[in-house]
């Protein structure tokens, strides 16, 4: 089928962002593009139907191409697992193939996104390799860089995909490890007939989270700048020092959220003197009116939460370790990174664009 399948060696490797970015690029080339997630691993109701978190954002952002039941035909709900492990016989491959064919008939290209990693779905005969073989579709591996042994994950995935492999993008590479990828991993991949498509550095913007998402995750209450919840937060800083120390400390990082007690107006005002995108006030302690007024004036959201500072930071860090693409700013930024760092000409030529 005409399209491309985006899979990853690990979860949270950036495949959703890349899949959506490629879909948008194809649309810009005047192509009719559908999005498909054959196996949804993060169940969520979308338009009243069982679907997946990624589908909720990407399908809607692409103006809902195709019927939802075909966009994400299999969702790994608990009852699905019970059925799959039981004696009931279901032809899951036929479900995937029928849905893909229906989407393909009405669109020039279908951009498919794999499950959490290349192995997920294997228990029903639908690992990344199985799906690629079933649909005979060019497949790109997104490899999240860990260390030099990332090559093991790449070669294992490449062996699984065989002739359907289009190439590999190494993502989230620290600047200090670029030479490892270019001088060691790339030649080794090419030696094993695995096409290297390029690397994308670890990027703070892509790893950021909107103030709105943080507020939702922390079950917080917005006290100021309610219209600016789309601001992106790249890092957290804890304010537990004197006002004099706080200003110099907070100036070290931009695009941050400062977490501090609701009764620490001195620290809160100090944070507002620096490049701060949100104030998160803990202990359910209301701030002084001057803080709320100043934050409103600067357009900095103030979020009040019930938990103490330590618990709040732990919850926030958990959110950052499971960042997903649900913000337009990230997708636009990824498109720029793809244009700058990835061999898109090779990809488009391989797809016949």
Automatic annotation (TrEMBL):
Pfam family, one: DRTGG
Gene3D superfamilies the record matches: HprK N-terminal domain-like, P-loop containing nucleotide triphosphate hydrolases
Domain spans labelled DRTGG: 214-318
InterPro entries, alphabetized: DRTGG, P-loop_NTPase, Phos_Acetyltrans/Butyryltrans, Ser_kin/Pase_Hpr-like_N_sf
Coiled coil, from the record: none
The name this protein goes by in its record: DRTGG domain-containing protein
Taxonomic lineage of the native organism: unclassified sequences, metagenomes, ecological metagenomes
């Amino acid at each position: 089928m005409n399209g491309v399948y985006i899979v990853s060696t690990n979860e949270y490797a950036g495949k959703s962002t890349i899949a959506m970015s490629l879909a948008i690029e194809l649309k810009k080339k005047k192509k009719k593009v559908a999005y498909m997630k054959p196996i949804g691993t993060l169940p969520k109701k979308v338009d009243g139907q069982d679907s997946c978190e990624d589908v909720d954002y990407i399908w809607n952002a692409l103006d809902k191409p195709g019927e939802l039941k075909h966009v994400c035909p299999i969702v790994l709900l608990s009852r699905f697992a019970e059925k799959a492990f039981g004696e009931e016989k279901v032809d899951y491959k036929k479900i995937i193939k029928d849905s893909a064919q229906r989407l393909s008939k009405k669109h020039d290209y279908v951009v498919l996104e794999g499950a959490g990693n290349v192995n997920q779905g294997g228990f029903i005969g639908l690992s990344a390799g199985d799906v690629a073989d079933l649909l005979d579709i060019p497949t790109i591996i997104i490899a999240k860089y860990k260390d030099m042994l990332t090559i093991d994950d790449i070669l294992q995935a490449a062996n699984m995909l065989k002739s359907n492999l289009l190439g590999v993008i190494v993502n989230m590479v620290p600047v200090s490890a670029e030479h490892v990828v270019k001088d060691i991993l790339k030649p080794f991949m090419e030696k094993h007939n695995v096409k290297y498509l390029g690397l994308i550095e670890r990027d703070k913007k892509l790893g950021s989270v909107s103030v709105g998402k943080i507020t939702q995750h922390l079950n917080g209450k917005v006290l100021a700048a309610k219209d600016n919840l789309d601001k992106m937060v790249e890092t957290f800083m804890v304010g537990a020092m004197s006002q004099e120390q706080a200003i110099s400390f907070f100036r070290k990082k931009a695009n941050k959220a400062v977490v501090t007690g609701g009764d620490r107006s001195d620290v809160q005002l100090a944070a507002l003197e620096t490049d701060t995108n949100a104030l998160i006030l803990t202990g359910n302690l209301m701030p002084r009116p001057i803080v709320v007024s100043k934050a409103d004036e600067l357009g900095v959201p103030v979020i009040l939460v019930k938990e103490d500072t330590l618990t709040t930071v732990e919850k926030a860090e958990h959110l950052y370790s499971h960042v997903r693409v649900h913000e337009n700013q990230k997708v636009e930024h990824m498109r720029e990174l793809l244009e700058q760092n990835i061999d898109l000409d090779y990809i488009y030529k391989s797809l016949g664009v």
